[in-house]
Each structure stands twice: as C-alpha cells, then as structure tokens.
Design goal:
By secondary structure, the chain is of the alpha/beta class. The chain has one domain: 3-Layer(aba) Sandwich (Rossmann fold). The strands form 2 sheets. Strands 3-2-1-4-5-6-7 form a 7-stranded mixed beta sheet, covered by helices on one side. The structure holds 5-O-phosphono-beta-D-ribofuranosylamine.
C-alpha cells in the first residue's frame, strides 16, 4: 500500500479526479492527506467529505519560501508519502524541498511543455496562434515546469476559442491524464533514464 499526499491551492478538480480514480479503481494506495497552501481552497471540502485528512499550511503566514517549505515538508512527512501529487499547487518550491522529494513528486501543467511554462498558459497559447494545446504530467525538478515528462494530452485549438473554452477543453483531458499517470507511478511502471521517463506498458501489471 503506497501513501499519496496531494497538495492543492484552490479548486482541486485534479485532486478530485485522482481521489475518485483511486477509489473506483481500488488502487493499492491510500490518499493519506490533502494539504492546501490556502485555507479558503474549495478543494478541501471535497477531500474532507471523502474521509481524507486535510491540513492547511498557509503560505502568507511565512516570510520566506524556505520557512514555508520547511513547515510544509514537516506536515507532509508525517504521512510518510511514497508520492507527492501537486494539483493546482500555486507555489514555487525551493531546491532543498524539491531535492527531498526527487523522483516522487508529480505535477500537472496546462500546456504542452516545453511550450508555455509558468502562468496564463491558455491566453499565451491563443496569442501564439498554435493549433494544438494540452496538458503535461511531469516529475518535478528545481526548474519550474521543466521536469521529465510522464504523459501529455493534446486538444485542438478551435476557431473562436477563448481562454474559457480552451481551458475547459484542456481541463477535461487533465482529469483523465493525471489519474492515469499517478496510477502508473503507484504500479511502479515509471522509470527515469537520462532525463526521460519510460512507461512500462507490458500487460503483467
Ligand atoms: C489545472 O489547470 C492544472 O493543470 C494547473 O492548475 C489548474 C488547477 O486546477 N496546474 P484544479 O485546482 O485541479 O481544479
């Protein structure tokens, strides 16, 4: 049984998708805790309603990133996580924190990385005139939105798209992409070699 800790800052729809999949597909894992960097994150209520322990480490109470990350790390490590799942967690993490969870921390980013790291990805995709957009699940490394890619989902950019229509199309894909990638990790199907991720798709799992 592996322990998963999920970090959120807001809506938590990706967290919700992972929790639902873990329960419906009876993963050999438990969602040990959901931890939010904001006490007003709407996602906390869903987690609590599903019997998952929640905690808040309010980022605005800490003067430095190092202090915040130290308190957050202590809260996370109470749950002995095998995997940390960042799900709309809106914080830049310090290198010691990232190093501590090297190889066991995943993030989902709403673009086809390496395109559009950072914020406002959908607006930037529209401004760039790309015909395809999407989402990326990746291992977290010290460089923001640059870790090795685990999985991507692609959607078309359609004439007349707005940030709202495009982000909704991507989000729908995120909600199947992220649980699938997390499940691969839980099933020990992911290996990293020279900065690339290999997914074992053999059927014996
Ligand atoms: C998602 O688009 C995710 O890719 C990005 O932030 C958004 C979070 O949404 N990192 P939610 O909180 O999971 O609903």
């Amino acid at each position: 049984m592996k322990n998963i800790v999920i970090l959120i800052s807001g809506r938590g729809s990706n967290m919700e998708a992972v929790i639902r999949a873990a329960q419906a597909e009876q993963w050999p894992a438990r969602i040990a805790a959901v931890i939010s960097s904001r006490s007003d994150a709407p996602g906390l209520a869903f987690a609590a309603a599903h019997g998952i322990g929640t905690a808040v480490v309010e980022s605005k109470q800490y003067a430095t990133r190092a202090e915040f990350d130290a308190v957050l790390q202590a809260e996370i490590d109470r749950h002995a996580p095998d995997l940390l799942v960042l799900a709309g967690f809106m914080r830049i993490l310090t290198p010691p924190f990232v190093e501590h969870y090297a190889g066991r921390m995943l993030n989902i980013h709403p673009s086809l990385l390496p395109l559009f790291p950072g914020l406002s990805t959908h607006a930037r995709a529209l401004a760039a005139g790309v015909t395809e957009h999407g989402a990326t699940v990746h291992f977290v490394t010290a460089e923001l939105d640059h870790g090795p890619t685990v999985a991507q989902a692609t959607v078309p950019v359609l004439p007349g798209d707005t940030v709202e229509t495009l982000s909704a199309r991507v989000l729908e894909q995120e909600h199947t992409l992220y649980p699938r990638a997390v499940r691969w990790f839980i099933e020990d199907r992911l290996t990293q070699l020279n900065g690339a991720v290999h997914v074992d798709h053999t059927t014996h799992h």
